[in-house]
Amino acid sequence: MANYKFILSGGGTGGHIYPAIAIANELKAQFPDAEFLFVGAKDKMEMQKVPQAGYEIKGLWIAGLQRKLTLQNLMFPLKLATSLLESRRIIRQFKPNVVIGTGGFASGPLLQAAGGAGIPTVIQEQNSFPGITNKLLSKKANAICVAYENLERFFPKEKIILTGNPVRQDLIDIDSKRDEAIAFYGLDPDKKTLLVLGGSLGARRVNQLIEKELQSFLAQDVQIIWQCGKLYFEDYKKHAQQNVRVVDFIERMDFVYAAADVIISRAGASSVSELCIVGKPVIFIPSPNVAEDHQTKNAQAIVEAKGAILLKESELDSQFSIVFEALVKDHGKQKQLSDNIKKLAMPNATKVIVDQIKKLL
């Protein structure tokens, strides 16, 4: 068997990093002698998370364009030129067989350089509405693995393969872990458990909502696992008590999903894909502060299949308590949402993506 070499690039948020790690793990399982290198953006979270997963990473001096005129934006052409040169050097030295991009700023110059050197490239697009980096890269990419239908309007149709998003394989069978998960968090097995997910960094508006509704949840006999994000942990850890667990980051996602009866979540693409596999009733509160409002579009794709509830941030004050209370009391509605969201799951996404990569070898 040839000693293959793979470069993976994706970062900025967990939604780009974890799919890249999942793909690398599957490639490693199939090619135990392969060599792997990750490329990320300096001082972004991938510089910690990738080495924790056991892979080497190099950082590029790159950042995204801000939406207003800033010093960062004036520096962008210089950062881009530097990152392109560095990407070419990395590719010359490492000599990869295939380069895989999962989104984020660093994947732009890296895949551009790989394409220029004639090395096959694969894009993995998590969202229902692609970012600008992947739209630009798609013209030269050999294969574009997507998680949603109808992306022909953004990408060349003949290159699109519907695969779903890579998710952690330990989420496939969470029902068997409920007792262990409840014990792990010291929760009451007879109470309903609400899981609140704000993304790896946290979500200010979601945290404000949970703080405001805390007494109402407890009055409804609901206990809470509240992932407030590392940016907000110092502000909200004071709310921890017997029926409220406040955490900044979750290492064991399988446990929190197993413990949950109802979930409140942002609608980043990786979270949505995981929630389809987990199959619990979800209230999505999309972030309005992301490019092209893609979180709302991700959530709407689930809502249209009657698989979740969507509340915009602007509706929280007037609607949230009514919607939440109705859902917690209505077991039929909970079951309907669970059954419908599960139908949208694509649990074999990682293997299907790796099959596409193998074709290019």
TrEMBL record:
Gene name, Swiss-Prot/TrEMBL: murG
Pfam families from the UniProt entry: Glyco_tran_28_C, Glyco_transf_28
Protein's UniProt name: UDP-N-acetylglucosamine--N-acetylmuramyl-(pentapeptide) pyrophosphoryl-undecaprenol N-acetylglucosamine transferase
Domain Glycosyltransferase family 28 N-terminal: 6-144
Lipid bilayer topology: Peripheral membrane protein
Cell location: Cell membrane
Protein task: Cell wall formation. Catalyzes the transfer of a GlcNAc subunit on undecaprenyl-pyrophosphoryl-MurNAc-pentapeptide (lipid intermediate I) to form undecaprenyl-pyrophosphoryl-MurNAc-(pentapeptide)GlcNAc (lipid intermediate II).
Gene3D superfamilies: Glycogen Phosphorylase B
HAMAP family: MurG
InterPro entries given in the database record: GlcNAc_MurG, Glyco_trans_28_C, GlycoTrans_28_N
Domain Glycosyl transferase family 28 C-terminal: 193-347
NCBIfam families, A to Z: murG
Family named by the database record: Belongs to the glycosyltransferase 28 family. MurG subfamily.
Keyword Transferase on entry: yes
Organism this protein belongs to: Flavobacterium cupreum
